[in-house]
Structures are given as C-alpha cells and as structure tokens.
Design brief:
294 residues; alpha/beta; Rossmann fold; 2 domains; 8 strands; 53% helix; binds NADP nicotinamide-adenine-dinucleotide phosphate
Amino acid sequence: MRKSVSILGAGRVGQSIARLLSMKGYRIEHLVCRSMEHAQKAALFVGAGSASTAILDVLSSELVFITTPDDQIEAMGAMLADSGRLRSSHTLIHCSGALSIDSLQAAGACGAKVMSIHPMQAVASAESGVALLSGSYFGIEAQTEDLAQARSLVKDLGGTPVELHPGMKSLYHAGAVFASNYVVVLLGMATDILEAAGVHREAAVQGLVALAAGAVRNVKDTGLPHALTGPIERGDFNTVSKHLAALMDNPEFMSVYKALGEYAARMAMEKRPQKKARIDTLVSLLSAVGVRKG
Ligand SMILES: NC(=O)c1ccc[n+]([C@@H]2O[C@H](COP(=O)([O-])OP(=O)(O)OC[C@H]3O[C@@H](n4cnc5c(N)ncnc54)[C@H](OP(=O)(O)O)[C@@H]3O)[C@@H](O)[C@H]2O)c1
C-alpha cells in the first residue's frame, strides 16, 4: 500500500505533486493553504484529499510536502516540530532550490526524516506543473540513509533524480537560475536590442523565441560545446568588431556581450582547438573594449 501524503502549501507545485502522486496510488489526505477557498480549489484540482487551513492536520500523513513559499518553510518545519507530534515515521519534504535541508533542522531533531526534492522546472500553474514535473530532473538532498526514499519519490513523480553534494545547494541553484531566469532576461535584452534596430516588439519576441528554441534543441541533440554556433565559434573577427561598435553606446548590453563572448570563446576553443589563434585574437578584441559607465 502506497504511503499517505499531505501538502502544506497547496499552490502550484504542491497541487502538481499531489495530483501526480495520487495518480500513482498514494493516499492524499490534507491540502493546506492560508485561505480555505484556495484549499478547496486545490482539492478540486487534485481530485483527492480534504481542504484545510489547519497546519497541524498534515501530521496524520507519513509524507508531508512543505510547498509554501521559501520564506515560510523553516517556520513551518519549526511549527510541526513544536507540536510535539513529529515521529520517525514522518518524512518532511521541501521543494526549494535555494534552501538546503538544514531549513528543516528542527523537524530533523525530533526524529522525522527530512529531504528536499527540487524540480528543475518553471511551474507557472498547477495544470502545467502536472505535465512538466513528470519528465523533469529533480535536485535531491537527504541524509545518506534516506536517499533511496528520495530517489523513489522522484521516480514516482515521473522525474529523474540528481543527487546534490552537501553544502552545494546555493551553487546548484545559481546554475539553475542561469538556465531559466537568465534565459528570460537574455531574451528581454535581445528584444530591446532588436527593437532599437527597428524591429516591431511582438515580431522581435516571436522571432527570438524561435531562435532560442532552436539553440536549446541543438544543445539537446548535439550536446555541449558542439551546439555552439555564431561568430565567436567561427572566429569571425570582422563581425564581432561590428557588434562591439553597434553596442558601444549601451554599456549595459556591452558588458553582457563581452562577458558572454569571453565564455563563448572558451567553449569555441574546446569545440575547435585548431582555431585557437583566431579565437585568441577575438578574446583580445573583447578584452580591449572598455565599457563606458552609464
Ligand atoms: N513555481 C515554480 O516554478 C517552482 C519551481 C521549483 C521549485 N519551486 C518551489 O516550490 C515551493 C512552492 O512554490 P509555488 O510556486 O508552488 O508557490 P505558490 O504557488 O505561491 O503556493 C504557495 C502555497 O503556500 C500556501 N501558504 C503560504 N503561506 C502559508 C502558510 N503560512 N500556511 C499555509 N499555507 C501557506 C499558499 O496558500 P494561499 O494560496 O492560501 O496563499 C499557497 O497555496 C517553493 O519552495 C518554491 O521554491 C517552485
């Protein structure tokens, strides 16, 4: 018989997890939100479990997902610990990428198992979360003896577990920010640049999304650094010089172009070591250009 599950913070991620685990035969018991209306909507979406605003209700379940916003997780763990009702039969799980399992230290000190399973995914709604989480990679953190349980939970969600080394959560999360949030930021910058070049904003967004999707697909198909294309990978001095001249009046874009260009040169060198001389010239060109202060 599959374990019982409650969700403390039945928002986007909490509801997605509850629905996926329910489909796998876990018994969903309580879906807790701050507002009863939200908890009822969550129960309707999950199709199992009862709506609640009473935090301690979750203690009837063996597995308790704390999927409140990050800044509430430690307090929620402490509140469950303070109840005096936590047992070694309880497993508390959070899904934050930024917080380590130390945030659930108080519960761990009461004998409960504590772990973190962080979906490397942007979940904009519970509906999209159900589709996206199964198929995602999850960064997992747990005591050695609990890792097997964390891995099996992720597999039941349809995901692939990736074990994180202790103390590396912040570095791991910074990497995830590069691949998700900063891709969006780069698309924002690229859109502004195309708009400055006279392209209609909506056309710029659509065109750049198609371009970025192609680049991401190439990474998936051919891997790194082979998926890298463009003027730096080709060692094209004239094109890079023209880019630098075109960006000269915008120090913000120029500094990002230079920093990413230098990293692109390192990847290009790895991909085509025979082009070392040309790529070295490009690196000198990039580092020679000063960035004017705004
Ligand atoms: N969304 C993502 O893309 C994503 C991706 C990876 C990991 N995560 C992680 O997943 C966790 C949840 O994120 P989310 O995006 O699902 O958050 P969310 O949609 O904002 O949901 C948070 C839920 O927590 C409830 N809540 C907040 N404070 C509470 C309290 N004091 N008592 C009881 N319930 C409380 C809220 O209830 P009300 O609705 O009543 O306010 C809401 O249902 C976070 O740790 C986040 O870092 C999120």
